[in-house]
From TrEMBL:
Domain Methylated-DNA-[protein]-cysteine S-methyltransferase DNA binding: 73-152
Keyword Cytoplasm appears in the UniProt entry: yes
Subcellular location field: Cytoplasm
Residues covered by the Methylguanine DNA methyltransferase ribonuclease-like domain: 7-69
EC number in record: 2.1.1.63
Pfam families, sorted: DNA_binding_1, Methyltransf_1N
Protein name, as recorded: Methylated-DNA--protein-cysteine methyltransferase
Length: 153
């Protein structure tokens, strides 16, 4: 499968956006740009970069991008609910588990969050610990979660 990529600067670090011919396939935090050819002419990458930039400038609250969402049925269910969390609000992992009618699946919700290939766009940063702690964003990068939540306040 051939894909195109671009690396963009953001307030939470460098983001690599990847797309195939018809969909955005991932947004990833990257340390360096070594592996990505910047394909600034790819229409989906252009629009994705523009929308993410607008989000960081406070000009956009929702995204309108063709996402290639691949995962288990459970993960897709969690990611769908994440997209329903209103801008500027936070839910606990328990709230998400209850919203998908699986109250005991709190840990599994956390794992689905971790597997989200579209941070920012599918707002897993809006999910926090039950005691309002910022836990488990992009591995151990809770500082990114904090910046995103402050941006939305």
């Amino acid at each position: 499968m051939s894909f195109h990529a671009i690396v963009m600067e953001s307030p939470i670090g460098k983001l690599e956006l990847q797309a195939d011919q018809s969909h955005l396939i991932s947004v990833q935090f990257v340390e360096d740009e070594g592996k990505a050819d910047s394909d600034t002419d790819h229409p989906i990458l252009k629009v994705a970069q523009e929308q993410i930039s607008q989000f960081f400038k406070g000009e956009r609250r929702e995204f309108d991008l063709p996402l290639k969402i691949e995962g288990t049925a459970f993960q897709k269910e969690v990611w769908k609910i994440l997209q329903e969390i209103p801008f500027g609000e936070t839910w606990s992992y328990q709230d998400v588990a209850l919203a998908i009618q699986r109250p005991k699946a709190v840990r599994a919700v956390g794992q689905a969050n971790k597997a989200n290939r579209f941070p920012i766009i599918i707002p897993c940063h809006r999910v926090i610990g039950k005691n309002n702690t910022l836990t488990g964003y992009a591995g151990k990068q809770v500082d990114k979660k904090q910046i995103l939540l402050l941006l939305e306040k």
